[in-house]
User: What shape does this take?
Amino acid sequence: MLEKLIQSRLQSRVREILPEANLATVLVRPCPDLKFGDYQSNALMAIAKERKQNPRKLAEEVVAGLDVSEWCEPVEIAGPGFLNFRAKTEAVTEVLKSASRGDHLFFERTKAPRNIIVDFSSPNVAKPMHVGHIRSTILGDALVRSLRLLGHHVVTDNHIGDWGTQFGKLLIGWKQDLNRTNLEQNPLAEMGRLYKQVNARFEADDGIKTLARQELVNLQQGDPENLKIWREMIDLSLQEFGKVYSRLAIQFDHVLGESFYNSQLKGVAKNLLDLGLAQESEGATVVFFEKSTGWSDPAIILKSDGGANYTTTDLATLEYRLKTWQPAEIVYVTDARQQLHFQQLFHIFRRWHPVAEVSLSHVWFGMILGPDGTPFKTRTGENIELNALLDEAEERALATVTEKNPDLPEKERLEIARVVGIAAVKYSDLLPNRQSDYRFDWDKMLALTGNTAVYLLYAYTRIRSVARKAAEAGAGASVEALQLTLPSELALAKHLLRFGLSIEAMAAEYRPNYLCNYLFELAGLFSQFYENCPVLKAEGSDRSSRLVLCELTGRVLKKGLEILGIETTERM
Ligand code: ARG
Assistant: This one.
């Protein structure tokens, strides 16, 4: 795209003048304010500062020998040394033409693909997914899509919680009180009930505690009956999770749960002890942290009963992943409450494997709140089940679709409602800055106006309907005819050129909201264009040219929504 071409020219020019400058910092970005230009670089100011040079002088020297006239109007130097670039209309037109011929869609695949593991969703067996898992699932999937589109090699791994002390309680409940009929109807609800019931007896009844410990030890030692029940719990849970994943069109390359690392845990603990990183303390194996970390409590690697915990499993998981996939990066997508866990995990890992070059990122997110601003729960205080949530989204969308299109056959209305309902849930999860909590609000997310999935889908269907009507009239887009004359045509075209930048920004910071906002702006610019420039009522080459703009906007909208994991529909 233009910014990449300008950037590489600028880098060559900087190299000419300052051969030792770090060119990786010489970047061309979109101009935040279009008044000043389309693209901008502030790199020279930092470079000048490092060298104690006058930034403006340096900028003048760079610009004097910088030829970007194929793509830009004369470069402007602003303020203390910003370079502002304004794209020439002909250059913009050329990029649109090549996109229209199918050479690209305003983004480029990376020249430096990386192996990236994304650990996301990761619900716990025998429990319904809670809203934290919902957000991890939707966010993680969108991140994976953006990385893959840019050409990175992504491995996805669903690190399900299928091991741990909860199975002691679950086994008691299963053996004493399982209701097979309930289990068949709603396995997660039945297992949840068993768990809660045993849990309630726990405080008052020491006998239960001993029994739970015994059941757990039996399981860990391979007792056939307990193993069989445990496997059934996993299978049933995975089937239920699978239903949700298939509704959301989400797939994983691997589902390696915590239990997969069982046999490694003692070895991890021994290794940490041998290296002097862990110590025995009150019968447990623990890692103490340096004062500078501010963490006063040690991390427990093995409890005094010999059981390992979450951190130990995650250490073993890390080692396995490094060995198996040689990742350049591992990304963990979970809610904000796990920040300390991951900080400590990464810290221990760095001391354990000081030469490993893998970068480790915890991509955390805030809570979903109910309409009253407290954590999102059902009226009876239960966790929201994702399946029920999606049902309700589809029902509500159906009501809207039916109101707008009472004449569409029911089958079609149901299909549109499915697309719209799921889109609304996903989009409302992806749009807010991921680190802030957001309020779940049905009316807002299903509104036809404002920054919503419904609005974007609606914009898309409008474009598709223009294309259909044009075809009926025997008209079509023609690349040769493309001409950007009116301001709203040029504004739309320039925004199309920025599609790649928004995907790159999303992938670099793991923030889908960048792409959401890009698409929202695109839909807005399209509306303005459509209001100001007749398309179907235009004639000859004007019509063919504007149909090119419609078509490209439609393709970018569709691709952008696809990155967010959102399907489109031809009608609404
Ligand atoms: N199962 C965990 C939970 O529900 C999330 C796991 C995240 N991934 C990880 N490698 N720790 O809280």
